[in-house]
Amino acid sequence: MLQSSNSNKIYLDNASTTRPDESALNKAVEYYTQNFYNPSSLYSGGVEVSLHLEKIREKIQSFFGKNYEVIFTSCGTESDNNVLESFSHKGNVVISAGEHSAIYEKAKKLKENGKEIRIASLNKNGSVNKENLYSLIDENTSLVSVIHINNETGAVNDVETLAKKCKEINKNLVFHTDGVQSFLKTETKLDYVDLFSLSAHKVGAIKGVGALVKRKGLFVAPLIIGGGQEKGKRSGTENVFGLTDFYYAIEQRENIKENYEKVLLLKKTLLDGLNEQFLLISDENCSPYVVSFSAQGLKSEIILHLMEDNGVLIGTGSACSKNSDSRVLKECGYPQDVLKGVLRVSFSPFNTVEEVVYAREKLNESVEKLSKVMNVKWKK
């Protein structure tokens, strides 16, 4: 039997993925064991599973408002790619320099193929420079995509306000946001945003499940063609087990405001006793769920492993881009000695104050130990 030695470690890398909710997982196993049928089948078992999927769809849709509908996908990356494929065929596309790689790398590929891609600059905390964004939009802009909460810094973009202003400049453009880090962590009732990507494994469910929330009546070209599932919008037999797990995981996190306050306390606990020579990147305007800071002059990967040896798992930036300095933080203007030392602590509402106090102590010990070994004097 495959086993892991990480199950008892304090897990503070929730922007990368979340620990699966055990209760949700057990309920999903129980449901799927009895209801394994293909939802496209015409006999009663298949019909019942199809109705079950509609219940899940309605649950997700309830967080966005009556003018939106939900397309099931395999992940946030698929949802993001679907948007760019659908709305980049004419005119120009505007994105921010802070986009997740699913948007940024796809946009680069489109540019290589002759599409006009315009990229808005960032503020120091990783949020989009609004004035620069607006200046890039013209009458030929077909799509604007701005991430809701940045996965590396926690910077929050007020996407509803941005979408409203962008449409005042060009009423015909489509506005998309990658909401993978914001779903169930902040308010997502929409009026002006047209498309919203999300992912189940960021909120306590398993990997392999995502969704694209779209405004009703907006045509999104299917990325995957086949059996015509999702009313022809996304072919492929639906992941009934994963979606059921997602449904029950959502039930564990529906109290968004209460959970936000819990996580706010966790962030305060981390920062209150953190060595003052850490350079804080995530300012007071960032989501409390993601805290980015730098041990300047030290190598973050070494600190990560020192923390792991002490039973704490944290991140060093985006888990989706390996073996490279942060593109986003480079765009924010940080120098090389800061980039090499970037660490990211990201919370779940199910983390505890006691866990964070312990992690904070081990962080301070780790960087003090490493700075002595490397004979590095920290910069203010």
Describe the structure.
- It is a single chain.
- α4 (101-112) links the parallel β3 (92-96) and β4 (116-120).
- This protein is 37% helix and 14% strand.
- The chain has helices at residues 22-34, 44-61, 76-87, 101-112, 130-136, 159-169, 240-251, 256-272, 300-309, 327-331, 336-339, 353-373, and strands at residues 10-11, 68-73, 92-96, 116-120, 141-145, 174-178, 195-199, 210-215, 279-280, 290-294, 312-313, 342-346.
- The protein contains twelve helices and twelve strands.
- With 380 residues, the chain is an alpha/beta fold.
- The chain folds into two domains: 10-19 and 255-373, Aspartate Aminotransferase, domain 1 (Alpha-Beta Complex); 22-251, Type I PLP-dependent aspartate aminotransferase-like (Major domain) (Aspartate Aminotransferase, domain 2).
- α9 (300-309) crosses α12.
- The strands form three sheets. Strands 2-8-7-6-5-3-4 form a seven-stranded mixed β-sheet, sandwiched between helices.
Spell out the key features of this protein.
380 residues; alpha/beta; Aspartate Aminotransferase, domain 1; Aspartate Aminotransferase, domain 2; 2 domains; 7-stranded mixed β-sheet; 3-stranded antiparallel β-sheet; 12 helices; 12 strands; 37% helix; globular
